[in-house]
Amino acid sequence: MAQSIPDTVDTLLAQYVAGTLPEPVRVLMGAHLELKDSSRIWVRDLEFAAGTALEGMAPEPLTERDRCLDTIFATKSSSEHGLEPAYQPTAGFFPKAIQEFIGFDLDQVPWKTKLPGFKEHIIGNFDGFEASLFWIRPGRAVPAHTHQGTELFLVVDGAYNDTLGRFARGDIAYADATIDHRPIAEPGRPCVGFAVVDAPLKLTGSFRQLIGDLIG
Length: 216
Description:
Blueprint: H1 9-18, H2 23-35, H3 37-55, H4 65-74, H5 96-102, E1 112-115, E2 118-126, E3 129-136, E4 145-147, E5 151-157, E6 159-162, E7 165-168, E8 172-175, E9 184-185, E10 191-197, E11 201-203, H6 207-215
Antiparallel strand pairs: 1-2, 2-3, 3-10, 4-11, 5-8, 5-10, 6-7, 6-9
Helix pairs in contact: 2-3, 2-5
C-alpha cells in the first residue's frame, strides 16, 4: 500500500528533512528546494530546530549497538537526499534532483503527444507512485478533471492558472478528489512540470467543453 501524500508544502518539507518521503516525492521536493529560496530558508531553520532539540535530550544507554550502527550507515545523508545540491547552481533545464532521477535533460525527453499542445512522458512507478513530466503549450487548457487519488505538481518552468490560483516556477500544487480544476498554461512560454500521482485522474466538465479542450 502506497504511503499517503501530505497536503501542505510545510509537511512535505518536514518529511523531506526527516527522510521519510517516497522516492518520487523526495525528488519533487528536492527540485522544489532548488527553485525556491523561501523553502530553503525554512528547511535550514527546521534542521537547526531539530538539531537543537536533539542536543537537549538526555542521553540513553545504547542497546543492540551493532544493529543501530548498521541502520545509521545505511541511512542516506542529507546530501544524498538532494539537500546540499539544492543550494548549488545547476546546469541544464531541469533541476539537478530531476536530472539525476530521470538521467537526462529537456532536450532528450521522449515526449508522447496526448493532445494537441499537450505532451507527457511517464517516467515510471516508484514506491506506489507514478512520476511524469508534462509540457503544455502557452495558452493551452488541460481538460477539466478531478483525481481518484492525490497529485503533486511542481512547475519547473512557465506558469498556469486554475481554480486554486496561479502556479509559477518552483510552486507545488496539491490536488485530490475534492478538487475539480482545468489548468490553463499562461501565454508567452510553455508550462513544464514534474508530477507525482498515486491514482488516475477522472475527466469532468461539460461535453462541449471537453471536445473543445481535446481539440485544443
